[in-house]
Specification:
With 205 residues, the protein is of the alpha/beta class. The protein has a single domain, classed as Vaccinia Virus protein VP39 (Rossmann fold). Helix 1 packs parallel to helix 4.
């Protein structure tokens, strides 16, 4: 399978990225929005799971975690480094998420950590439709959007929180919060927007 444009540069730089990703804790990355995540046990989908840092943390909390990662080097590391936690690893990718869509499982929480900004406008449109299919009624989606210089060899777009919220609205996904942060990996020239969306719950007459 040919590499996806959205994953450009990740295979080549995996040896450097793996220790960088694993140097941060789940709490450092998700701390501002963790209170909006469901209590365990819940069904969680980590899209673009990378090394499995977040998937492993959630599995240790008692969640049932499925990790999707299209970059073989990162997926292989995650499977080995976080073995024994019950994480199910799949080779799948945005925008269509064909492997996940074909399965009956739907999720209480979907994570997209440093993923969405790799997709162009058409891919984001298709990706949001796929995500809306995968989230349970009342479930939540957690996005992090990167703003700043684009690393050499990568494809990124400056997606703002307002655009994300607008693209989610036709699918019945509404924003619960939006938080801006800086300083991850010691970078002062890069900022992040954390946004959590919620799907409409089932109304019982």
């Amino acid at each position: 399978m040919l590499p996806l444009p959205s994953t450009a540069g990740y295979s080549e730089t995996a040896p450097a990225l793996i220790p960088q990703y694993e140097s941060l804790s789940f709490e450092q990355v998700h701390g501002e929005v963790m209170h909006l995540y469901p209590r365990a046990p819940a069904d969680v989908l980590d899209v673009g799971a990378g090394t499995g840092r977040d998937a492993a943390a959630l599995a240790r909390q008692g969640h049932r975690v499925t990790a999707l990662e299209p970059t073989p080097e990162l997926r292989t590391y995650g499977e080995q480094a976080h073995a024994g936690l019950g994480i199910e690893w799949l080779d799948d990718s945005l925008p269509a998420l064909p492997v996940a869509i074909a399965r009956p499982q739907r999720y209480d929480l979907i994570l997209l950590t440093a993923v969405w900004m790799h997709l162009d406008a058409d891919e984001r449109h298709a990706g949001m439709a796929a995500l809306a299919t995968l989230v349970k009624p009342g479930g939540r989606l957690s996005f992090s959007l990167r703003h700043g210089p684009i690393p050499e060899g990568r494809r990124m777009f400056d997606v703002r929180g307002a655009e994300l919220a607008e693209s989610a609205r036709p699918h019945g996904l509404v924003p619960l919060c939006s938080v801006s942060t800086t300083g991850l990996f010691g970078r002062t020239d890069v900022s992040w927007t954390r946004m959590v969306l919620q799907a409409a719950p089932v109304l019982i007459a």
